Amino acid sequence: MNETLHHPSALKDPSNLANIYFCDKPPPKELWKNYTYVHPAISISTRNVCHGRGMVATRDIRPGECLFVTPPTVHADAQEIYKEFLKRELVGSCSSTVNLEDIAVEILVENMYTSMVENDKGTLNSFLVLMGAGSGSDSGKKEWTRDNFNWIQMTGIPTLLGNDDTDYWCQQEQVLALEKLVSRDDLKHILFKNAFGPDFVTYEKIHQQWKQKASHHVDYIPPHILGIYPLAAMINHSCVSNATRTYSNEVMIVHASKNIAAGSEIVWSYIPPTQPLIDRRRALKKRHGFICQCEKCRLESSQLKIDVLPVTMSRALSQVYQWNRSLMDVASLDHVSKRQLYMLQEEVNDTVFSSTNLSNELKRYLRIDIVNFYFNYLNAVLSDIGGISNGSASNTETCEKLLNIATQLHFAFCASHNGSTEHLSILHLCYELATALQQKSIKNDPSLTIMTTNKVRFWTDQLKKAHMVRYGFVGDDVECFRKLLVHTRQILRQRDGFMKVPFHFL
User: Fold this and answer.
1) Per-residue pLDDT tens over the stretch 175-214
2) Could you tell me the end-to-end alpha-carbon distance of the chain, in angstroms, rounded to an integer?
3) What are φ and ψ of residue 461, in 5° steps?
4) Helix (H, G, I), strand (E, B) or coil at 417
5) Angle CA 415–504–217, to nearest 5
6) How far is C-alpha 119 from the geometric centre of its chain's CA atoms?
7) Residues 468, 13: contact at Cβ < 8 Å?
8) Whether 22 contacts 486, CB under 8 Å
C-alpha cells in the first residue's frame, strides 16, 4: 500500500483515504483540487445554526463518515516560513525573540493580497466571502455594495472551495477598486477569525525544534502550519463537538465524530477543549469575540460555581485547575510535588467525582476540562514505577488503578470529543495497560487470563473504533490499519514522536 497522493483517482472512494494518509510526498499545488470531496448531505445554512452561517446535515450522518476533504485555498508554505524564521534568527540579537506565528501570518496575508492583485477570482472569492457582514458594517466599508453583501451571505460550497471564478467585482472597476476596499488589515482580520493553524504540533513545539537547528540543516518541517480552508471555516464552535479534523500534509480531512441527525448543525471546538469553563470563555472572547452558550457551558455555569460549591469540592477543583494549566515534564518534579499531585487525585475523586450532588453528564464534561491534570498524574505515576512493564505485584495494582482512571476518561471523550488527539492518546495507554496486565496474569495467575484477555480485546476494539472515527475507513488491508495504529502511537506515546514518523498526518 504505497500509492502516492499524486494519483488523480485518490478520492474516487472518499470512504477509503489510505492513499492520502500513506503518501510518499506532498502533492504538487497544481493538483490540490484533485483531492477535494464534499459529503452530499451537508449544506451551508443560516437556519438551525447557533450563529450566523453554519454547516448543517441534511440527512442522518454516522460517526466516521467523511464530511469533506479540502486543501487550503491559500496558505503559508512551511518551507517559506522556515526560511524566514532562519533569516530572522541569524540576524537577530540575543535579546530579540522571533515569533513564529507572526511570520506565518505575515506570509499568509501577503499570499492573500497577491491573489487579490493578480485577480485570482476563485481564490479571492473563497476568502473574501469570509468577511461576511463585517465588511458591510463592522469595518466601515461604505463602498461595499448591497449586491456584494448579499453574495457574501448567500455563498455556496463551490465558492468556499475556490471553484467560483465569477467576477463579482466588475461593478467596482475590478482590482483597483478592490485594493482600495480591502486592506492588509482586513485580510489579517479574515485570517485571525478563519485560518487554521497547527493543532497537535503547536507553534511552540515547532519553534523549539527550529531554534535548536537554527545554525544547521533542520530535520523537521511540519506538513501544515497555517492556511485558510473556507469550507471548514463555516463550522461553528461548540465545546461539545460532533466533528473532528486531521491533516495529511496541507489537505484537511474532516469526519463526523458522533451521530448527527438530519437538520442538526455540525460543530467543533475552536480552542483546546481541555480547559475549565472560565479559561475557555476567556480564550473564546479574546480570540473570537463571543461567549459560548453550548450545552456544556450552560451546564457548567449553572452547576459548577466555585463560590457556591461545598468548601472541600471548591478547594480541590481550584488546586486541580492549577495543575491543569499545562503538561509538565514530570521527570523534573521533586518528591514533595509528586506526593501533592497523588493526594490531590485522591481528593478530587472523593469530593467531586464521588459526589451525588453533580450529574453524571457534568462529571464527564469536567473530566475533559482537567485532562492535562490527569495526564500529569498518569505520567508521574508511570515514571515512578519504572514503566508499565515492571512485573512487581505493587505495579500490577497500580496498573489496574491507572486503567480504571483512563477508562473513565475514555467514556468522557466518547461523549464530547470522540476521536480527538487526547482521546487517541488515552486509548493507546489503556491498551498498553491491559496488555501488561494480561502478560502478568499469564505469568503469575493463569486463572485471570481469560478476564485480562477479554480486556485486551475490548481496548483493541475501542482503539479501532476511535481511529475509524478520526481517519475513516482505510481499506480492508490489515497492514494499513496496523500502520495507522503504529503511526499514532509513535506520535502520541513517544517524546517528540511527531518528528520520527514516516508519514505526514495526525
Assistant:
1) 555 666 778 888 999 999 899 999 888 898 898 888 876 5
2) 18
3) -65, -40
4) coil
5) 135
6) 33
7) no
8) no
